[in-house]
Write the structure tokens for this entry.
Amino acid sequence: MRRFLISTAAALVVATFLLLVAGTDPIEALSVLASGAFGSTDKIADTAMAWAPLALAAAGLIVTFSAGLWNIGVEGQVIAGAIAATAAARWVEGPGWVAIAIGLLVGTVGGGVWGMAAGLLKTRGGVNEIFGGLGLGFVAQAFATYLIIGPWKRAGVASTSGTDLFREEAWLPTIGGTRLSVVPVALALVTLGWVWWMLRATRFGLELRAVGSNLRSARLVGIRSEQVMLGAFAIGGGAAGLAGALVTLGIQHKLVPAVAGGRGFLAILVVLLAGYRTAWVAPVALFFAAISVGSSQLNLRLDLDSSLGGVLQGVIVLAAVLVAGWQARRKAETAPIEGDT
Amino acid sequence: MDATLASIIAAAAPLVYAAVGETITERAGVVNLSLDGSILLSAMTGFAVAFMSGSVVAGFVAAAAASMVVALIVAWSGIRLRLNQIAVGFVLTILAADLSAFLGDDFTRLPGPTVQARPIPVLREIPVIGQAFFGQNLSVYGSLVLVAAASWFLARSRRGTELRAVGERPEAAHARGISVNVYRYLATAAGGALVGVAGAAFSLDQRAGWSEGANAGFGWIALAIVIFGSWQPMRVAAGCYLFGALQVVALRLQPVFPGVSQVLPAIPFPLMILSLVLVNSKSIRTIAQRLPRLGRVLLPEPPGALGTNFAAD
Amino acid sequence: MTLRITEISKHFGPVRANDSISMTVEPGSLHAVLGENGAGKSTLMKILSGFQDADSGSVTLGGQTVPLGDPQAAIAAGIGMLHQDPLVVLPFTALQNFMLGTDLKHRTARRLFNETAARLGFVLDPDRVTRSMSVGERQQLEIVRLLSRGVSVLILDEPTSGISTGQRELLFDALRQLASEGLIVMFVSHKLEEVLDLCRSVTVIRRGRVVGERDLPCPTHVLVEMMFGDIVPETTHESARLGEPLLTVTSLEASEGRQSIRRVELVVNAGEVLGIAGLEGSGQQPLLRALAGMTPRVAGSITLDGSDLTRRPYRAFLRSGVHFLPAGRLEEGLFAELTIAEHLELALGSASIDWEVARRRAEEAIDRLSIKGRPDDPVAGLSGGNQQRVLLAMMPNDVSVLLMEHPTRGLDIESADVVWTQILARRAQGTAIIFVSSDLDELVATCDRIAVCFDGEILDIVSAPDVDANSLGSLIGGQIL
């Protein structure tokens, strides 16, 4: 908690400095940011819709981090989910809810498969998951782009602005006249709860944490660490894929090249700031979603670039990581000398 | 042919700066993962400073300084705080990218100063290679000189040898009285500065001007090419030129296969994964042991202590 | 120049690796530093060579103070060290390694290299990549390098592990020559026969302290007792009634890292306690790990209770009731961040987890083993003795063979007592217990039989109640009774 406060304070100092440099009143900018996130029903709806995929991807990352894996490929897994969901929305006929259900399902599977690919590269190919995941991410990105300008191009014109809109029945239903859909929020909450429960109350969760803590000890107790890691990648990728499917079916209603839009990367920051604790993911993701959504108002109202939100997020996480490192070093360096008892 | 070769060399110049810079850093054992954000930040800084001062040189210097600061944060948190270099580098990637968008807002899509062409008389008339090697500007010449210089430095010079020892086996360097962490700071700073030059080479030359996310993705490509190029400047440069060639080809093919220029940038990544799989493949290892010469060509060999923090205690 | 070490102390976290160590070595000495693994010899040598800094104490050479914590200064003062794993940069050639850290010119370096190598009788190709050189050749390279830099104290840390007999002879001849030229040779080892062969004097270190100094030669068992501690006559020794033969090992060969074991013939009965003694590195570790099913490359056969387990995967050993307790508790036994309850759940729990049950199980174990901790405490915060008790608590009920590496190393007396009470209670259920130890007292007090390993083979198996300190010491030193 103290770490969180110190890093938020650091972010505020940096933000104030940047705003003063940009010639804007910092207080005003922050209040615009806050009202941009929560100022009206529509804005709350936008924040909630931004929160859900972020929280989902972060929930998946909690699983991979627990197993000691740096799943940087999460961005690609979001894209893989979006591609799969798009395929369902385009090809599945019949009632809208069937297309949506199938879209969410295959989106999850698509992301999971993409995650497993990074996992197999690690366990079978010996490729570090950071580079394997990153590489697969760019492959997914290129594939999405290819689909958008190739086989799935808009009638007549090929453009990177996206595919045709899906038929409206395949859009996620929203509440009344708002942009809020219950489905993503509910799925994110359920997933977070499930991850929390899975890590604590199931044998797989315990084995996952054991593998993440010490691979050699895990082997000694007889855990099949390869399978556990692959499982973690499948779950992490699946959650990210579901996030991608929700973005496609619920927000954009078409496949665009930037469907992931840094959500995966932002989810990694969320998990770092949450200190790898599941219970903290929901509030931290909400905080970050609010910053992301609120900062779009900066441009309209104060003529400031909306990337200020990203700067704030980055500074907070950087400060948190550095403060944690500093505390750990101080503790290690001042450790008392004692006999073995 | 002449013109094609010249455009490949020019197109690859920024990437060469970034990838060779990261090669130097990684050879000392430090991974500076922040490249993708660093390049954006320095591209913006370089353009903004050149725009305001009217001096392209000032732009390059400022760009180098910006990326060097980012790189030094990675080095410091690894060496002093013993934090995971990947984690810190990753956060800085995102932060630097957003910072470039925020600070560069006022400089978006403005015409600004660019590096002037400086063809070298007589030499540029040489058939085939004349235009490519002697018909460019200082930024491109610099990239060519850098490849040769970095290659010589790492392979032949005493300091370069010590730097490689630090990245390969820090304990051995330490036992010989070489200051491991001083070398690591210096290599990270130098590599960071070159990443900054890469940014300026984008915004002041290759894709003159600045806009948000203008060169996003190139940092990751540079990181992939360092692996693909087996941490050797010459081979890393070859990887960059291969990628430059792909870009030029894609541009030519664009009218025939629309979209090819959007898809081709992903090519380095499967190649990187393939080379990483090869490193770990048992059969390739066996072949490499039987035929060491072929093995050295096939197998990338990462610095022994890459990404680890060193402390004598 | 006389080397004087005065009250050197060094701690790592809670461990005192060196506790006020002092010694004096005269020029021209071939001086051995003896001690078991973890006694603190390597730490002391790393401090001497500047590789690590000391907490307190000082070193002088020929009256001049040697600055500590600075390898460059140590070499300049004349102290050079050959590390156990020679510190060469593998992708570099011999000459590049030789020049690294100096400002020699290429040609001068090559001449100096060839001259120094020739003087010592080493045949080394300066242009060979060190990765393709044997460990022995890498050592020769390092010795050549250190001598060319004018050291007057040459420290060698376990130089004979992993090199051939021929290379060892070459090395010893070179060391004798150097000592005759007035150098101090500090030979760090736990191999008695080599120390007796080479050195003229010895300092023995145990648990971070100097426990004795002797001129050599002297009887082997004297040195063994200093290294391992005296055997206190044991009164409470009681042997359980032995059951049927349980574990049968025939012509077993196994290797792990640089250590190996050959020609093992062994039958262990149910309820028997078999100790494995020997100087560190004599093959105990590959033997124990082969029996645990952790070494994939094994020749010969291992049969447990009639079923053949040879070359079966580790999990098959686990299912057959083989249980292994490693020496490095936090490195390969426990999970630093996980709690006591979670450890027990991992080892003993079923598919679905009921934390109420798990916590009660943990509380019961904490009571039974008097662990100082609560069910929800992460094990990283426990002391070594309590960590060992957690490992014991993780042992299932139906273990048929229990294998342990140094079960009480680094533990206080009370913890060691608890550990042995728990282990010996298993005998009644017919569990066979096999453990490696370097504590003679412990071996004699708890074992039915003691197998003594020497140089990669089992030299002899003796009945524990009948053995005395002198004969066990001689056996460990390699002398057949």
